[in-house]
Design goal:
This protein is α+β, with helices and mostly antiparallel strands. The protein folds into two domains: about 90 residues, Methane Monooxygenase Hydroxylase, Chain G, domain 1; about 230 residues, 2-Layer Sandwich (BirA Bifunctional Protein, domain 2), CATH 3.30.930. The chain contains eleven helices and nine strands. The strands form two sheets. Strands 1-4-5-9-8-7-6 form a seven-stranded mixed sheet, with helices on both faces. Helix 1 packs parallel to helix 4, helix 5 crosses helix 10 and helix 7 crosses helix 9. The protein is elongated. The N and C termini lie far apart (about 75 Å). The mean pLDDT is about 90.
Length: about 350
């Protein structure tokens, strides 16, 4: 029997050596090691071998299997090396490589980072909060009455649980005032969600950056000076900025801020970029109730708040005429910022 195993091994090694490609090599493997292969059938006959010869026969089978397996691996590697050399034989190593495209930051990321840097230099710290909010932090604490249009399902994305997608990052300001000590000087960049009809200047998901400053002597000139400095740093000292009286439930007095947008081939036009104002005392009172103290006593502290659309800042910076270009991921458009 041992001689039979030796003969199987010899013939198997010859088949493996003669294999010229992976197909014939696999056929050789199956003919020897497959379920009905010669070595497998020889191993199945061990039950007929006398007891005193079983150990020697088993050892011969193991030796043959190891030799055949090793030969298969060596032949496989040799065939792969031959295939690799053939694949590379037609390559001209002197040919210049194809250029590798280099990625770049999205314009919204660029404008956000620059805005944050400007405000950080002015002493504002970064703050963050959840995008899925409750009505208290998004509306009630901000003096927004129950019948305000912003709280309608036509304007705001609600969940069945009663939670909602925040309509502004002002909710971060509320959360900071609930826990922080004076002075509070924070900015909160992030996504906001509204049921706005998408057009050249509106998106239903957009990027905001809001700021809050609360201390014992914060005035309207502080607000105006802060924002004028910001926009001049962002767009240049010749940038035209205007403040228009407006109404917001959470600030009094309140203003909307416009910056003149100049697009080549079009007449200059004012575009709204921010809202701002002095924090309404009712906001302080609502937050004092949750804090259960009088740290934000409106007789002793004042503050200002502002919120701006980063998407619209990008439109002004790069004279983009349609806000939808910022979300369409057209590489022809985005490559301009690389």
């Amino acid at each position: 029997m041992n001689e039979h195993v030796s003969t199987i091994q010899t013939l198997a090694l010859e088949l493996i050596a003669a294999a010229s490609d992976e197909r014939t090599l696999d056929e050789a493997r199956v003919s020897v090691l497959g379920k009905k292969g010669t070595l497998s059938l020889a191993g199945a006959a061990i039950k007929d071998v006398p007891g005193d010869q079983k150990a020697a026969f088993g050892q011969a089978l193991n030796t043959a299997r190891a030799a055949i397996t090793s030969a298969l691996e060596e032949k496989q590697n040799a065939l792969l090396e031959i295939a690799d050399r053939a694949a590379l034989s037609g390559i001209d190593l002197t040919l210049p490589a194809r250029p590798v495209p280099i990625g770049a930051l999205h314009p919204l990321t660029l404008i956000r980072d620059e805005a944050v840097q400007i405000l950080r230099r002015m002493g504002f710290a970064l703050a963050d909060g959840p995008e899925i909010e409750d009505e208290f932090h998004c509306f009630d604490a901000l003096n927004t009455p129950a019948d305000h249009p912003a709280r309608n399902e036509k304007d705001t994305f609600y969940f069945n649980s009663g939670k909602l997608l925040r309509t502004h990052t002002s909710s971060v300001q509320v959360r900071m005032m609930e826990t922080a000590t004076l002075p509070i000087r924070i900015i909160a960049p992030g996504s906001a969600y509204r049921r706005d009809e998408i057009d050249a200047t509106h998106l239903s998901v957009f990027n905001q950056l809001e700021g809050l400053y609360v201390d014992t002597d914060v005035t309207l000139p502080d607000l105006k000076g802060t924002l004028e400095y910001f926009f001049h740093e962002m767009f240049g000292t010749t940038t035209e900025v205007r403040f228009r009286p407006h109404f917001f439930p959470f600030t009094e007095p309140s203003f909307e801020i416009d910056v003149k947008l100049q697009v080549k081939g079009q007449a200059p036009r004012w575009i709204e970029v921010a809202g701002c104002g002095i924090v309404d005392p009712a906001v302080f009172e609502a937050i004092n109730a949750t804090r259960k103290d009088r740290v934000l006593d409106h007789g002793k502290v004042t503050g200002f708040a502002f919120g701006m659309g980063l998407d619209r800042l990008a439109m002004i910076r790069w004279a983009i005429k349609d806000i939808r270009l910022l979300i369409e991921n057209d590489i022809r458009f985005l490559s301009q910022f690389a």
